[in-house]
What we know:
By secondary structure, the protein is mostly helical. It has 2 domains: 1-60; 63-238, MFS general substrate transporter like domains (Growth Hormone, Chain: A, Up-down Bundle). It is built from 7 helices and 2 strands, in the order ααααααββα. The chain has a two-stranded antiparallel ribbon with strand order 1-2. It is flat, with a radius of gyration of 22 Å. The termini are far apart.
Amino acid sequence: MLSAGLLYYIYTGFRSAAKNLDGPYNSALRGTVQVLLGIAAVSVIVINIYLIQSGKSHISKDEVPTAWFQSLNSVFIVAFAPFFAWMWLKMGKNEPSSPTKMALGLLFVGLGFLWIAYGVNNIQPGVKVSMIWLIVLYAIHTSGELCLSPIGLSLVNKLAPLKFASLLMAIWFTANAFGNKLAGSLSALYPENGQTTSFLGYKMSNTYDFFMLFVAMSGVAALLLFLLTRRLQKMMLSTGN
């Protein structure tokens, strides 16, 4: 059933690409999308042929390598991006403004950390939890990324003065670099071996406390951006965009 659903999803994506990317101007993009969808369809079919020949109903593995989880973000981006693009178009005049979308992205980040914090709450050190907690975390955070990252890139390109467009785009990516640096610094606060760490007076003695720090930070950032949304919209309109 899952394979049939995936094939139907790929088929609808193929038809949607042919319809929405019609014309010679979009021929290269249309071809790229259709080739990727074709590869996905062939992969699903090959996997099912393998299962039938081996007499199995599913692929089992005793241990999932940690590196596999690094692919979840890419998988969810490919899976969710068409839905988000369709949703924004479907909303029409009710589509949220760019600042609102970015605030939603920050909110999703907080919800993702709240989810994983709930998953590890009251878990004793050394006890493993189901990998579904991490999978759902990636799904929620990817949804937030699709609300924030492409929207931010588009906004910089739309609002930046023509002669400063490249410079401001570089500043956008520089902000990402600072964010990665901050994430690395905050990860050093992880309370290992029962040690207690602190950040601005907030003490963390277990994994739950550690994740709740990011829930609070993301939630505050989302709230501030929501409150500033109308003012930012007026500033955007004053630039003529």
